[in-house]
């Protein structure tokens, strides 16, 4: 068995979900400034958790309808996302989305793409389903180290060795899982991440991951026509 794990934001999907949530609250500038600094690994946000909690705090009061709005109006899958998951699954790979974003959308991405697992941050809600600005008590923030751990836990449960692991992402919090996997691929990543990633893809389509794994165009077409 083999295991492929993917980051969600700016990898499987084309958006940064927290920025889109902020846009709905007119907080886009303040939240995306933190997101950008965090992605570049700049202080005081060198620690993913501190930057995440700072951004989540700004989301207090977001209404529950926002998730449906994002799914139906805002979120778009990256070119090749459906192909890469479908082809890997047809070849017996276990697939997972490991996201430093939110389970409200990661679970939907998993379902929409037909993946096996989804792990992401869980946001606390009040009685009316509005966000409180906090991460759910008793849950762990999905940072780079947690992504690495989750990948290894899934692999262990499925009997997958290191050489059978593929990790794809674009942010600094993806470097640990990329480094641990047999093949780590930076997808259209930030310069700092590209420098440190084991392999890089910059063509803008996740289908390139299949080419790296040795798939031919005809094989991909064949799977997608089924």
TrEMBL record:
SUPFAM superfamilies: HAD-like
GO biological process: L-serine biosynthetic process
Entry EC no(s): 3.1.3.3
Entry keywords, A to Z: Amino-acid biosynthesis, Hydrolase, Magnesium, Metal-binding, Serine biosynthesis
Entry cofactors: Mg(2+)
Pfam family for this entry, one: HAD
Domain of life: Eukaryota
Record-level GO cellular component terms: cytoplasm
Metabolic or biological pathway: Amino-acid biosynthesis; L-serine biosynthesis; L-serine from 3-phospho-D-glycerate: step 3/3
Transferase listed as a keyword: no
Active site: 7, 9
Class of enzymatic activity (EC top level): hydrolase
Family, similarity comment: Belongs to the HAD-like hydrolase superfamily. SerB family.
Entries under PANTHER family matching the protein: PHOSPHOSERINE PHOSPHATASE
Name of the protein: phosphoserine phosphatase
